[in-house]
Amino acid sequence: MKNHALKSVALAALVAAPSFAATAYINQIGYRPGDFKELALVDASGNVDFVNATGQVVLSVTPKAASYWDASGQNVQLVDFSKLAEPGKYSIKVNGNVLRSDLVVKSQTYEEIVKASIKWFYYQRASMALESTYAGKWARAAGHTNATVKLHNSTGASGTIQSSKGWYDAGDYGRYIVNSGITTYTLLSLYEHFPQYFKTLKWNIPAEGSLPDLLAEIKYNLDWMLTMQASDGGVYHKLTSLGFPGDVMPAQDNSELYVIGKSTAGTFDFAAVMALASRIYKPFDATYATKCLDAAKKAFAWGQQHPSQNYLANPSDVSTGAYENDNPNDEKVLAGTELYITTGDASYKQSGSSEYVSYWGDVMGLATYEKATHATQFGGDANEAKQKILGTADNFVNRAETGFGVVMAKDDFVWGSNAVASNQGVWLLHAYYLTGNQKYYKAAVKVLDYLLGKNPLDMSFVTGYGTKSPKMPHHRPSTSDNIEEPIPGMLVGGPQPGGEDVGSAAEWKCADYRTGQAATAYTDQRCSYATNEVAINWNAPLAYLAGAIEAINAGYAPEFAANGVARNDTPASSSSAAQSSSSAPQSSSSVTPESSSSSIPGVSSSSSANVESSSSQGTIAIHTPIESKVVRSQQPRFRFDGHSLFIEKSGKRFDLKGHRIK
């Protein structure tokens, strides 16, 4: 009787105990103090409280009504907590229950992600040892150091060429012109749009003369790409072994290397990259810039003469990545567009634009960016391109208002879905550049939120960053280096329901991880090349997205951008939307007199400046009227030539009162 009574009491207590399984999904890296902030909430009811380190509730928010997200099969409430502007670490509570304690608000939110995502390209370098000075515990011996490479009969030639350097493509050790093309192009665009920001940002890689780190890293791959051009101007498709290597470090891969195929698409990809590179490297190395431009012109000419030399499948004795393409028209449009911008020669001008986000197999979207942002050169084509960008961007914005607040649709969860998301963010930023409309910026930030933890897997998809991140990517160096942590800064492919690696070849066989939902079909296992591999063309748009957002919030904007695009990193009442320039306060900046230019964030194109020099301090203080949270896209550059300070804008010189210097 006594035992029965005790059991009854215990059962009653169990029934009465509240069941609480609510989950909050956040950007695990952090949120910017004055920026838009949002988290996703599942299986919860009631207000969301934000608690600071002293235990004080500093903000309480009523979530939006729940909406269904078909990509994960969940009903989700979005919580806008933009008013939480004080830097710090916070806990999230609902009905007194702590859902998580890792919410961070901080400035320069993504700077470390920017550095790590680009530093990873250094870890992918072929033909050189990675020294501990730069690589830390991930130092390794050089791989694939023999520069003499056989020409496969699929090239239509015989013999050997000399080819070294470049980046390993993904988790394997192949080097591919097509995939290398869009990757290199994306990183070059990041520098071209924000040169002043990337002139000073460093992440500990070997120096390449006086080049900024970003250009030094890109040049390592450009040098390899240049070796892949044949004397007739055509470009070989790829440099790989005949099959994928085993799970070994680069130095242990002794497979014989071949140059395989020659393709029209790859040749036009090459031409586009080299034309863009020529104008970016010209201020640093005019000889190298000329070399790139000459290579671009030769490649374009070959592509026109061979319009349908398509790489449709691997030769029978080759099983490495194919990067097939049966329609190189989009590559031709991009190449011609870049050559026209670089040379001004209208014979290169191509028609065509797209409303679709680019990937390695369709780069028309990249040409669309260029046309929309070079309105003077492209006229009516520019307006058409702009409208296509804005139409697609508006659709993205609408998607992100419900469900997980994610730009992606269910059908976007394909192989490399995280790269789809990243490229959608890049597309949104171009809409923001063109209009200054905050809705596009906000949606781009939501893309980073998704990639860095605000997703139904509650995972940051970047190795080494976040509360929960991938530990076992499909990446041979990370698998075989006997180091527990994977190389940091890698964006894994992400969820997708295809299951191509489930029950596949014995070496990489995965148990079935599919959930029936597109956004959760993922496994953090080395076997999963379909969801957990890494690739250079996936990391590049992540680097662009995070890098551009950091540069924008450091006060920079592309030269072509609308007024108000550049922001700053200081808290605002709820968001850092650009303010009107009519009530501009006074401010001062300090610059060191150098022969190189120095961008002064916040100086409007019409401002005059009072100058106070101090030879003992070696600085010049420039007091200028500035716009609140706005930097003009055509902001002037202050220069010091050793004798006097002057302003340079659009290639012209002015004194500090605005008078033109002849």
Low-confidence stretches: 1-19, 571-638, 640-646, 654-662
**End-to-end gap:** 106 Å
* CATH topology descriptor of the largest domain: Glycosyltransferase
Number of domains: 3
The largest sheet is:
5 strands, mixed
- Please state the average pLDDT score: 86
Task: Please count the helical segments.
Answer: 15
Give the overall shape. globular
| CATH architectural designation of the largest domain | Alpha/alpha barrel
- What is the level 1 CATH name of the largest domain? Mainly Alpha
Q: How much of the sequence is in beta strands? A: 5-15%
Integer-rounded radius of gyration: 26 Å
Q: Can you give the helix content as a percent range?
A: 25-40%
SSE-based structural type: alpha+beta
The strands making up the biggest β-sheet line up spatially as 10-9-13-12-11
Task: Please report the total strand number as a whole number.
Answer: 20
Report on the architecture of this protein.
This protein is 32% helix and 14% strand. The protein is an alpha+beta fold. It folds into three domains: 20-105, Sandwich (Immunoglobulin-like); 111-551, Glycosyltransferase (Alpha/alpha barrel); 584-662, no CATH class. It has a five-stranded mixed β-sheet with strand order 10-9-13-12-11. It has a four-stranded antiparallel β-sheet with strand order 1-2-6-5, with no helix packed on it.
